[in-house]
Amino acid sequence: MPELPEVETTCRGIRPHLLGQTISAVEVRQPKLRWPIPAELSTATGQTIHAVTRRGKYLLIKTDTGTILIHLGMSGSLRLVDNHQQPEKHDHIDIALSSGKLLRLHDPRRFGAVLWWTEKIETHPLLSKLGPEPLETAFDDDHLWRQSRGRKQAVKAFIMNGHIVVGVGNIYASESLFRAGILPQRQAGRISRQRYQRLSQTIREVLAEAIAQGGTTLQDFSNSDGQPGYFAQELLVYGREGQDCVACSAKIKIKVIGQRASFYCSKCQT
Fold first, then answer.
1. Do 163 and 125 touch, CB atoms closer than 8 A?
2. CATH homologous superfamily for 4-123?
3. How close are the terminal C-alpha atoms of the chain, in Å?
4. Which of 54, 135, 174, 191 has the maximal Cβ count within 10 Å?
5. Looking at the DSSP assignment, which residues form a beta bridge with residue 80?
């Protein structure tokens, strides 16, 4: 599933090709994605794109009269293609640009979303209760420590909660906790402020490195140019069950936490 680094990589990839362009048409071939494509999306036609940003895992294409929200779901991707390129089976939506290019959504599993919002974008129900961005100043150890007080849930589930901080998906949570030396199953409310200082730092480091590498390709993700992300080559624990820990040679273990596979080293993480 595309996580924050993959969505940020896509955002940076498409932004130069969309800014200043006018939307000349919107073609919906499959209206039934995670939520039905709203008929109002057609009103984006004729509008000029002024900004392409990201909030959490949502891509935001801002025009004069509204914002297109795109979520890539489990296996979705966006491509810029020539307007004469024929769609493939799972190419569900085309946003035609005045440049002659198409922004094309490919989504085999149809868990993605394309929505239209005309109010202030921060008021959208999908965005209004999201936590801070992990690479911005509002996210720090003090935020994590305060939010964790009294919580008995596992720290891995805690940092994957989008109301606490956005974009720390399963892969990046496992990697961040390993670098911070914290067991993923440890109760969030029993971790010291000092350890949260290290964890907030490793979350930022891991996400920044993943963005620099173009994300993590494990199954479906590739960026807006069709190229895979290379951060998978840098993974220290995720997907390495039974292999030697890179730091101490103990075997990497796996535990299901919150219905997600969690990888860790029981010697390096406490």
1. no
2. MutM-like, N-terminal (3.20.190.10)
3. 28
4. 174
5. 103
Catalytic residue list: 2-3, 57, 260
pTM: 0.87
Query: In this structure, which amino acid lies at residue 156?
Result: K
Cα–Cα dist 109/32, whole Å: 11
Q: Are 57 and 167 in contact (CB under 8 A)?
A: yes
Residues 236 and 252: beta-carbon distance below 8 Å: no
Which residue, among 103, 108, 13, has the nearest Cα to 63 in the 3D structure? 103
Q: Tell me the pLDDT tens digit for each residue of 23-77.
A: 999 999 999 999 999 999 999 999 999 999 999 999 999 999 999 999 999 889 9
Domain with CATH 1.10.8.50 in the chain: 141-264
